[in-house]
Amino acid sequence: MTTPLAAHHAAHQARRQIWRDVTLFDGRHTSTERMAVVVDGDRIAQVCQESAIDTDAFADAIERGRGGVLTPGLIDCHTHLVYGGNRAHEFEMRLEGATYEAIARAGGGIMSTVRATRQADEDTLFATAAKRLAALMADGATTVEIKSGYGLTLADELKLLRVMRRLGRHYPVHIVTTLLGAHALPPEYAGRSDDYIRLVCNEMIPAAAQEGLADAVDVFCEKIAFSVAQCEQVWEAAAAHQLAVKGHVEQLSNLRGAVAAARHRALSADHLEYLAAEDAPALQAAGTVAVLLPGAFYCLGETQLPPIAALRAAGVAMAVATDANPGTSPIVMPTLMLNLACTQYRLTPREALAGMTAHAARALGLADRGHVTPGAVADLCWWDVETPAELAYAVQPGRLRQRIFEGKITHEQA
Ligand code: NIG
Ligand code: FE
């Protein structure tokens, strides 16, 4: 007869799962030994060498996999996944010579997506974003950050944030939401950008904070968007509501938005193609992560490279993300970003993988995700490759054998 306590113990034990004889990329480094990883409930319980595994102690654990490569679940720390319509026609215009900036100045670009997004209802936005989210998840994403910024009215920005929260409730993925009210100046505020910034600071941020809809606040600091001084007002309003801050900075020109973001203790400074090498140490000193978005660089045919060597030399944590959005990076494939980070930006495969795991977690302020260490959330990917570098080397969907979210296998290859 089992006592209630013993039954409880058995149920607890039964939850333990083990992946054996794997090459482990723990979020920063690749193991030199074959490793075993034990998951208990939704957490990593133990990480040890395969040769040191105590088979008696783990006799009760369910073996889920053997061999291959185990990594943290991928973290896509910069996306704009929720929007209406698409911009295939602008893609064609750019192929004929129009620039991203010229299209934006003529009322296209972000504003064309804003028009489509304002017209779309929440169910439509949810359904279209769900397809893109499914693609990210099928390629290994277990955490996805999503920015608003295609509504640009109080009601439409909150609508986008609500859709994101709903995605997080419906799918086995951790969603981090970011209010990007200061993405572009809507036409109804033409010539009155300071008034629009006041709307962002005095209405959007307080409402998003009060309703618990935003985890962070982002801005687009650029000549075609907002000045450094305006972005700083937004960051101050965010801080006043205990929201973390981020910035799209130095994407198309150098306004020194990254240094300003670092002054405001931003979690991350994103894009950075035009960052001056001498500004890299400021990011390191503030603990601000450099989020690299090679998909936008690639899709725009950009030639200006971010100062990778300077970032590396300064010891700035570099994250890598898809920037999935309808304009500059209509790509929902995290592993392609590993490849582009290496081929376009010359990151090493190890740096690229850290960029979509441990460093991406830092860019979102998440302490217990992005690394495979005891106590961390058990978000894992088990891959059908022999070395982690292969994930960056080959662009090849279908290598994800299992995707584990909070201790549950949510995807299993046939
Ligand atoms: O990250 N730079 C601004 N925001 C997006 C592009 C948005 C768009 O073109 O729709 C980006 O590249
Ligand atoms: Fe972006």
Question: What can you see in these coordinates?
Answer:
The protein is 37% helix and 21% strand. With 414 residues, the chain is an alpha/beta fold. The protein has two domains: 5-72 and 371-412, Urease, subunit C, domain 1 (Roll), CATH 2.30.40.10; 74-363, TIM Barrel (Alpha-Beta Barrel). Strands 1, 2, 3, 4, 5, 14, 15 and 16 form an eight-stranded mixed sheet that branches. It has an eight-stranded parallel sheet with strand order 6-7-8-9-10-11-12-13. Helix 7 links the parallel strand 8 and strand 9 (216-221). Helix 6 (154-170) packs parallel to helix 7 and helix 13 (334-343) crosses helix 14 (349-355). Bound molecules: N-(iminomethyl)-L-glutamic acid and fe (iii) ion (FE). Fe (iii) ion (FE) binds next to loops. Fe (iii) ion is lined by residues 78, 80, 248, 323, 325.
Could you give the topology of this structure?
Blueprint: H1 4-14, E1 17-24, E2 35-40, E3 43-49, E4 62-66, E5 69-72, E6 74-76, H2 88-95, H3 100-105, H4 110-119, H5 122-138, E7 141-147, H6 154-170, E8 174-182, H7 193-210, E9 216-221, H8 228-240, E10 244-249, H9 257-263, E11 268-271, H10 280-286, E12 289-292, H11 294-299, H12 308-314, E13 318-320, H13 334-343, H14 349-355, H15 358-363, E14 380-383, H16 389-393, E15 400-405, E16 408-412
Parallel strand pairs: 1-4, 1-5, 6-7, 7-8, 8-9, 9-10, 10-11, 11-12, 12-13
Antiparallel strand pairs: 1-2, 2-3, 5-14, 14-15, 15-16
The chain binds N-(iminomethyl)-L-glutamic acid and fe (iii) ion.
